[in-house]
Design brief:
The structure holds 2 protein chains of 2 kinds. Chain A is an all-alpha fold. In chain A, about 70% of the residues lie in helices and about 0% in strands. Chain A has one domain: Orthogonal Bundle (ABC transporter involved in vitamin B12 uptake, BtuC), CATH 1.10.3470. Chain B has one domain: ABC transporter involved in vitamin B12 uptake, BtuC, CATH 1.10.3470. Chain B is built from 15 helices and 2 strands. In chain B, strand 1 and strand 2 form a beta hairpin. Chain B is globular. The two termini of chain B are about 20 Å apart. Classes of the chains: A mainly alpha, B mainly alpha. At the A-B interface, helix 6, helix 12 and helix 14 of A face helix 7, helix 12 and helix 15 of B.
Chain lengths: ~350, ~350
């Protein structure tokens, strides 16, 4: 067991608690950089998909896991990011400017939407964001001159100072692009958590009343969280557009929103690891299912709704038996080994809480 | 604040003794909120009133033949809108029931409705079980009530005390699972229910009313009235409200909170089955019919979660807006209308038109 002696406040907010964990993450990064030399192009594409979902997951995690506001409308922001990026590039803005700008635009859109919506909380917020997700589909169709409506759009080849990146013909280059964005977003998230703002997010999540008492401006904090969350989601959306190669009003549907939320719940709410674990599940589940189907009932039989059904079932089991998600389970196993003979059974028992109405506050 | 499990039964029995000693009314008035609902106008009047007004309109129209066609058209839209709205209202009733009693929202209520419709279909239709409709319908309602209770017993009870978001996500996932199961059992092709309600039309003035539409409206209004009275007047109804407002206080007052919550899920299942039967009588159903639930959300929110007549009113508003928007707005804008209304209500009156939220006095 490693014991951290904290001798200053700086120690408490270090990026890595000790050399060992720094080493682990460095090794992981090196592995990620070397990955194109280790696996084939098909699997590289799948890993790219995982990373893109993980970025989107990080975006939603910031809002749901960190600030405690459930959103079922993040597909709308994926769409905003994707369309903003493509339209900017079509207007002649170079990728290196258009891509960050797309995220910022999405963030601003998010803030504008957050101002009225964040007065709501709990289920009302969830319902408002569902409406948002449905409206996004129709609004994309209505804005046809810009968005191409039902026929959709095709993102152009990425061009960074003459260096071309394309998803299908050069998957390795696209993988590195996504990897860079992932690392930047992860570091951004991690550093945000160390800042006063990140602590304010957590305070709002845990108790709005206590957060107010500690001098946190609730509405402003929630708005900022929504904006930053949408910014990261916007980047993920832009990458998703490149990954898909074509997109229209139906690409970013309500199902994507719901999948995103479920993904971070399965991964483990409130942790960076959770976003990545969840992304692995979401990206590889369809493959795993089709392999399983080939084995058991033959590949030709199509079962509509199988993926979402199995996904739903996994989610129900997780909420019932492991509300902390995959990351929670991983933590428990790790701590069990770290403390070896001393781990107790009820170490992770939640405090029982009793419900009071929201209607009388 | 922690309350250990072991100490609850003792307190519960104490509560029961207290309960038996104190007058029932007094006991519950401690925990039950004085109803803001009573202020809301009864909806039966609303629905019937508009129909009566409609009939009067027809009378006037015959006097002025030039207006006739146009107004009849409006009337036809209104009636079909009301009938659709009643289905939304019934699903919304299910949301509200569960929200009122457990403060959770069942995002799978639309899929419950779909399941109820398919169970009835499976029992009634000739190529399935072939039971007579009037046997199959109560049976299906019973099965759905049982399913609702079992769902609470085996799944939701384990979430006791977890955040609302957990329940939201769980019920969304449940919706996926139900849709998948229904697809596997009954297939994905749209099917029609062989329902006696679906036969025949009634001609009133120049308006053609489907029997199914009339049945939907009548059953919905009756059911809402019944449930409304149930929550206002009966001991169980008050116990359900008490359990949602403050679980612990309800325990102390002798309300068996867990069993009450199970019952409410059963009741919601039964209401969903009724909605499903009526919906299936109006047209074909397929496993994706549950997505109708999203419109019912709009209904429940517009009515203010927590008010039964509000849910029906919201359903009617959404139901009526839809055909009119489709008729008078440009193609792209019409399907937005209900959701735009939902967002507008959420932004300007976040707790619905029939709000129950009041600021707690310290």
């Amino acid at each position: 067991m490693r014991i951290h002696f904290k001798t200053s406040y700086e120690h408490d907010i270090r990026l890595f608690p000790d050399r060992w964990s720094f080493g682990v993450y460095a090794a992981l990064l090196i592995l990620a950089v070397l990955l194109p030399f280790l696996i084939g192009e098909f699997y590289l594409g799948e890993v790219t998909n995982v990373l893109i979902w993980a970025i989107a997951g990080l975006g939603l995690m910031l809002l749901t896991g960190q600030t405690g506001q459930a959103s079922l409308g993040h597909a709308a922001f994926l769409a905003v990011g994707c369309y903003a990026n493509t339209i900017l590039i079509e207007q002649g803005v170079p990728f290196i400017i258009a891509f960050p700008l797309a995220g910022v635009i999405t963030g601003l859109v998010g803030v504008v939407i957050a101002i009225p919506v964040l007065r709501l909380h709990g289920i009302y917020l969830a319902i408002a964001t569902i409406a948002l997700s449905i409206l996004a589909d129709d609004i994309i169709v209505l804005l046809e001159p810009w968005t191409g409506g039902v026929s959709g759009k095709f993102p152009e080849v990425i061009n960074i100072f003459g260096f071309e990146i394309e998803r299908w013909t050069m998957p390795t280059r696209f993988y590195y692009l996504v990897l860079v964005v992932t690392v930047v977003c992860t570091l951004f998230y991690r550093n945000l958590l160390r800042s006063p703002l990140g602590r304010a997010f957590a305070a709002v999540r845990d108790s709005e009343v206590s957060a107010t008492a500690m001098g946190v401006h609730i509405a402003r904090t929630k708005g900022t969280a929504f904006g930053l969350s949408c910014m990261i989601t916007g980047w993920a959306g832009a990458l998703m557009g490149y990954y898909a190669g074509t997109f229209n009003n139906e690409t970013f549907s309500l199902v994507i929103s719901i999948t995103l939320l479920m993904m971070i719940v399965i991964g483990g709410l409130g942790s960076i690891h959770g976003a990545f674990f969840g992304a692995v599940v979401v990206a590889f589940l369809p493959q795993a299912l089709s392999i399983g189907k080939d084995l058991f009932i033959g590949g030709s039989v199509a079962i509509p709704g199988l993926e979402t059904g199995v996904f739903g079932l996994i989610l129900i089991l997780f909420i019932l038996f492991e509300p902390m998600g995959i990351y929670g389970r991983w933590m428990k196993i790790r701590i069990w080994f770290e403390l070896f003979p001393f781990a107790r059974k009820d170490m992770f028992k939640r405090q029982k809480s009793y419900l009071k109405t929201e209607r009388l506050r | 604040m922690t309350l250990r499990n072991s100490s609850t039964p003792a307190k519960l029995t104490l509560g029961r003794k207290l309960l038996s000693r104190i007058d029932r009314k007094k006991t519950y008035s401690l925990v039950c909120f004085s109803s803001a609902v009573t202020k809301t106008p009864s909806l039966k009047k609303g629905a019937c009133g508009s129909r009566r007004a409609a009939r009067e309109e027809i009378g006037q129209d015959t006097a002025r033949p030039g207006w006739r066609e146009d107004n009849l058209d409006v009337l036809q839209l209104l009636v079909s809108g009301l009938a659709n709205g009643c289905v939304y209202g019934l699903i919304a009733l299910g949301f509200v029931l569960i929200y009122k009693a457990t403060e959770a929202v069942n995002f799978a209520q639309g899929d419950f409705m779909m399941l109820g419709a398919f169970i009835t279909l499976g029992l009634t239709n000739a190529h399935h079980m072939g039971l007579p409709f009037w046997v199959a319908a109560p049976l299906a309602i019973g099965i759905m009530a049982l399913l609702g209770y079992l769902l609470d017993f085996f799944v939701l009870r384990h979430l006791f005390g977890q955040s609302q978001t957990a329940v939201v996500i769980l019920t969304i996932a449940l919706g996926f699972v139900i849709r998948f199961v229904a697809g596997v059992i009954w297939g994905h092709e749209p099917q029609t229910l062989e329902s006696p309600l679906a036969l025949g039309d009634i001609k009133m003035g120049g308006v053609v009313l489907g029997m199914a539409d009339v049945a939907v409206i009548v059953v919905t209004v009756l059911l809402t009235l019944f449930l409304y009275q149930f929550f206002q007047r009966t001991k169980l109804g008050l116990a359900m409200q008490a359990a949602s407002q403050n679980q612990m206080a309800a325990y102390y007052m002798g309300v068996p909170v867990k069993r009450v919550q199970g019952m409410i899920w059963g009741l919601a299942g039964a209401v969903a089955a009724v909605a499903g039967i009526l919906f299936a009588s109006k047209g074909a159903i397929d496993p994706n019919a549950g997505l109708l639930g999203i419109k019912a959300f709009a209904a429940a929110v517009i009515g203010g979660f927590g008010s039964l007549p509000g849910a029906l009113a919201g359903g009617l508003i959404v139901g009526v807006i839809e055909p009119f928007a489709a008729r008078y707005l440009a193609a792209g804008y019409s399907q937005i209308a209900p959701y735009a209304l939902l967002l507008a209500v959420l932004i300007f009156r976040p707790h619905g038109l029939f709000s129950q939220v009041r600021v707690k006095k310290v």
